Amino acid sequence: MRWRRATAGASWWTRPCPGERAAIEAQLERLGFNAFDAILLTHAHGDHAGNAAAWSRRFGCPVFAPEGEADQVRAGRCVLPAGATPLGAAVMAVQRRLHVCEAFEPVPDVRPLPLDEGAFGSCLKVVATPGHTECSASFVVDGEAALVGDALIHRGRSVFPPFADRPERVGDAWHTLLGTGAETFLCAHGGPVGRALLERSLEALERSGRSGRA
Question: Which homologous superfamily does the CATH classification assign to the domain defined by 3-208?
Answer without folding.
Answer: Ribonuclease Z/Hydroxyacylglutathione hydrolase-like (3.60.15.10)
